[in-house]
């Protein structure tokens, strides 16, 4: 089933302002090591990030969590960029991430204002087999969608599926939401606290390609209209649990590592410790993602179900 | 067979299965919790198998440890420490475990502890021994290897003057570690769970047969003996400047020859292995060992012989 198909493509490109200030965040989660290592490296030697038409600022999102090699200290930083947190008095709260979100908002925002950075990359890893997933808020992020299209067409890294991460009806409160536009990279599988050379190289290639895209855009290149496939999260599925809240089954071997592959009604999804299969009870085919992501056990998510759709995007060009 | 080559050893009645010595190594955590609810799978005639969660506070927080690594504090100093003032949680816990399953080195101690671990390294299902001189555990490894054939089941010998550490399982007369990977911390994979379960099954089968009087003829097994630990390249601020080279990543137990790529710096430079002989790396890119300044350990292959074995 296709969804979100927009009316026929406009003949004129949409004109968008050029990008002058770009930020690259690693370590929003302190134990997702590809971004942590890359940003630390770029802070020492940023030459690889430099382009002629814009300025790039690498930064460590959650330095205390990085130091301790944990996802977060008090609460998940990547869920903290909502007005409720950004507008409380920092002194009123002892949660480190609320203070840090306010700092980031001050440096790269304020969120939603004209002074905010033009673009923010946020570098993540997952224990799920998601390949080199590109996370965009929604299909209405025109510039990010064009960037994804450019990456899929020009980057040597294969399998860069696009996933819309903004929960329907909710406001985006991810770190990258501080800037006017954003793209998060979600590369896996990689265990927490581990840096794998293969993931590091892929993330690096995608970043180089994305910065090239911005450079071309700033130089006035016309990016024609296109249609593109993307996945949209529609629901989350928790592990089966005992009455005391303990997990009573694991991801089924047939589902493990099968992110972005169709899951049909009746397919096995879990296996109990007694060896019994638990089958999917929905009446439609979905494309599961974040299958067995370590950080989502506490969020009561064994995997997320997505729908695949084709999305039409108009041409864009830099406005004058 | 020469009858004097058959060792008569005491029956192994008191067996414990430890999970969650490290709270984020989930296969053992969930197997132990499952067996505590339903122990049918681990019951065998002639022995008592007790499932036990070693570090419940770390399990609750899904982290390796709370104050310090439980799997390093079973030395006489920590086990004898007076519990006054600030004592790390794991040291207190070690003393509890020692009184429940030990005392270490004493006749009342448990006969056998199987301690269930996971690693992010591609080590498969590995058995870890602490000494080359315990015929019972050597015979057990031989039995498990046989039962798992054609799947491999490497045996890692943690016998070294400075690299050996004071493990949780060392309170038992016969300590055996079961290390299954690759599995990320905080993740439970069905395949890894299945592999661990099989090893435990065969281990308990062995004990049951041994207690029932079966004689095990002398045998020789191939083991990997720990030689050295290798740290990541670091800068002056102690920050890691290179990652495991793609040619070495996931190649646990495969030969690493002099000149083979070992690390890849963030600038893209390959750092080769400069040792003089071929070694067999393991624990390659284990998440928990970054803080222990360890990228991998090197081992050498050796053959160990065990005498024949029969219950006394």
From TrEMBL, chain A:
- AstE/AspA barrel-sandwich hybrid domain span: 227-308
Output the Pfam families linked to this UniProt entry.
AstE_AspA_cat (PF24827), AstE_AspA_hybrid (PF04952)
Q: What is its EC number?
A: 3.5.1.114
Cofactor binding: number and manner? Binds 1 zinc ion per subunit.
Which residues are named in the active-site annotation?
186 (proton donor/acceptor)
* Main location group: membrane
> What are the subcellular locations of this protein?
Apical cell membrane; Cytoplasm
Q: Name one GO molecular function term.
A: metal ion binding
Taxonomically, the superkingdom here is Eukaryota
User: Which reaction(s) does the protein catalyse, per the Swiss-Prot or TrEMBL entry?
Assistant: an N-acyl-aromatic L-alpha-amino acid + H2O = an aromatic L-alpha-amino acid + a carboxylate; an N-acetyl-L-cysteine-S-conjugate + H2O = an S-substituted L-cysteine + acetate
Keyword hit for Zinc: yes
Q: Which residues bind Zn(2+)?
A: 29, 32, 124
User: How does it sit in the bilayer?
Assistant: Peripheral membrane protein
Name of protein: N-acyl-aromatic-L-amino acid amidohydrolase
* Record lineage: Eukaryota, Metazoa, Chordata, Craniata, Vertebrata
Q: Which gene encodes it?
A: ACY3
TrEMBL record, chain B:
Annotated N-acetyl-L-aspartate binding lies at 64, 179, 289
Cofactor note as given = Binds 1 zinc ion per subunit.
Q: What is its main location?
A: cytoplasm
Cellular component terms (Gene Ontology): cytosol; nucleus
Keyword set, alphabetical order: Cytoplasm, Hydrolase, Metal-binding, Nucleus, Zinc
Q: Where does the Succinylglutamate desuccinylase/Aspartoacylase catalytic domain lie?
A: 12-206
Active-site feature positions: 179 (proton donor/acceptor)
Q: Which residues bind Zn(2+)?
A: 22, 25, 117
Under which EC number(s) is this enzyme classified?
3.5.1.15
Locations listed in the record: Cytoplasm; Nucleus
Q: Which residues bind substrate?
A: 71-72, 165-169
**Top-level taxon in the UniProt lineage:** Eukaryota
The family database entries (HAMAP family) matched by this protein are listed as: Aspartoacylase
Quote the protein name from its UniProt record: Aspartoacylase
């Amino acid at each position: 089933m296709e969804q979100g198909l927009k009316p026929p493509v406009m003949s004129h490109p949409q004109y968008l302002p050029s990008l002058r200030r770009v930020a690259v965040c690693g370590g929003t989660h302190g134990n997702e090591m590809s971004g942590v290592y890359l940003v630390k490296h770029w802070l020492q030697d940023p030459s690889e990030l430099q382009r002629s038409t814009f300025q790039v600022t690498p930064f460590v999102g959650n330095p205390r969590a990085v130091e301790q090699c944990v996802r977060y200290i008090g609460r998940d930083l990547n869920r903290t960029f909502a007005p409720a947190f950004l507008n409380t008095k920092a002194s009123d709260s002892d949660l480190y991430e609320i203070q840090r979100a306010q700092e980031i908002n001050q440096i790269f925002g304020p969120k939603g204002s004209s002074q905010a950075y033009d673009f923010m990359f946020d570098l993540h890893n997952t224990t799920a087999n998601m390949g080199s997933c590109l996370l965009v808020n929604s299909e209405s992020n025109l510039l990010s969608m064009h960037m994804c299209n450019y990456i899929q067409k020009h980057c040597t890294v294969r399998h860069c599926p696009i996933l819309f991460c903004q929960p329907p009806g909710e406001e985006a409160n991810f770190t990258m939401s501080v800037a006017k536009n954003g793209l998060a990279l979600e590369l896996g599988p990689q265990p927490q606290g581990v840096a794998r050379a293969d993931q590091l190289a892929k993330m690096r290639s995608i970043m180089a390609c994305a910065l090239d895209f911005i450079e071309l855009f700033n130089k006035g290149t016309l990016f024609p209209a296109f249609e593109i496939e993307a996945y949209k999260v529609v629901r989350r599925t928790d592990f089966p649990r005992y009455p005391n809240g303990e997990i009573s089954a694991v991801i089924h071997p047939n589902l493990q590592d099968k992110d972005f592959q169709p899951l049909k009604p009746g397919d096995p999804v879990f296996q109990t410790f007694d060896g019994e299969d638990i089958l999917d009870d929905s009446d439609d085919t979905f494309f599961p993602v974040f299958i067995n992501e370590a950080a989502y056990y506490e969020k009561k998510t064994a995997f997320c179900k997505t729908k695949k759709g084709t999305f039409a995007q108009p041409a864009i060009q830099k406005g004058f | 067979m020469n009858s004097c080559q058959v060792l008569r050893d005491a029956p192994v009645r008191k067996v414990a299965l430890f999970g969650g010595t490290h709270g984020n190594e989930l296969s053992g955590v969930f197997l132990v919790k499952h067996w505590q609810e339903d122990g049918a799978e681990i019951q065998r005639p002639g022995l008592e198998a007790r499932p036990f969660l070693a570090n419940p506070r770390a399990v609750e927080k899904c982290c390796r440890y709370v104050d310090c690594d439980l799997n390093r504090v079973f030395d006489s100093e920590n086990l004898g420490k007076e519990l006054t003032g600030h004592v790390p949680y794991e040291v207190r816990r070690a003393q509890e475990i020692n009184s429940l399953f030990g005392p270490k080195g004493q006749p009342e101690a448990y006969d056998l502890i199987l301690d269930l671990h996971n690693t992010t390294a591609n080590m498969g299902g590995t058995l870890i021994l602490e000494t080359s001189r315990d015929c019972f555990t050597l015979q057990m490894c031989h039995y498990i290897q046989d039962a798992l054939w054609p799947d491999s089941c490497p045996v890692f010998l943690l016998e070294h003057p400075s690299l050996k550490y004071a493990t949780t399982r060392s309170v038992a007369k016969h300590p055996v570690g079961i290390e299954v990977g690759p599995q990320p911390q905080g993740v439970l994979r069905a395949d890894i769970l299945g592999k661990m379960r099989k090893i435990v099954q065969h281990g308990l089968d062995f004990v049951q047969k041994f207690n029932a009087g079966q004689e095990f003829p002398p045998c020789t097994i191939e083991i990997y003996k720990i030689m050295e630990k290798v740290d990541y390249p670091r800068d002056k601020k102690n920050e890691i400047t290179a990652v495991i080279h793609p040619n070495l990543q996931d190649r646990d137990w495969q030969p690493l020859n002099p000149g083979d790529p070992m690390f890849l710096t963030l600038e893209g430079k390959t750092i080769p292995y400069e040792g003089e002989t071929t070694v067999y790396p393991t624990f390659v890119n284990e998440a928990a060992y970054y803080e222990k300044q360890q990228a991998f350990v090197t081992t050498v292959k050796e053959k160990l012989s065990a005498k024949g074995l029969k219950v006394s």
